[in-house]
Write a structure and sequence with these properties.
The protein is of the alpha+beta class and 110 residues long. The chain contains three helices and seven strands, in the order H-E-H-H-E-E-E-E-E-E. The strands form two sheets. It has a four-stranded antiparallel β-sheet, with no helix packed on it. A three-stranded antiparallel β-sheet has the order 1-3-2. The two termini are 28 Å apart. InterPro entries: NA-bd_OB-fold, RNase_B_OB_dom, Tscrpt_reg_IclR_N, WH_DNA-bd_sf.
């Protein structure tokens, strides 16, 4: 069912409320919430208020610093990637990053 839910979000490309998912798939509320909670926990969906949606992702070449952090170079502004989140990327690799809510400095990160 989790794959079916993910495919549904990818096809529609828009946020959905729990009630809509219940009607569409004929799930019980407790069951649907468990699936959605799991997808949010895994980072495959996000929830804001009562809406569930696919996380925003960006793609670009990465610049790495010897201290472990990096930046995904984007046309509008580079995206900071903290140490430990660069995984095994090499300089100039094309990477995909998930946009995270702004940190204490007010800037988004990935």
């Amino acid at each position: 069912m989790r794959e079916t839910l993910l495919e549904f979000f990818k096809k529609t490309g828009r946020p959905h409320r729990l009630e809509e998912i219940l009607r569409r798939f004929g799930l019980e509320k407790r069951e649907a919430k468990a699936y959605l909670r799991g997808l949010v926990r895994e980072g495959l969906l996000e929830k804001k208020g009562s809406q569930y949606f696919l996380p925003a992702r960006v793609q670009g070449p990465i610049s790495l610093h010897r201290d472990g952090y990096g930046f995904v170079r984007l046309p509008e502004k580079d995206l900071f990637i903290p140490p430990g989140y660069t995984k095994d990327a090499w300089p100039e690799d094309l990477v995909e990053a998930r946009l995270m809510p702004p940190g204490r400095d007010g800037k988004p990160w990935g």
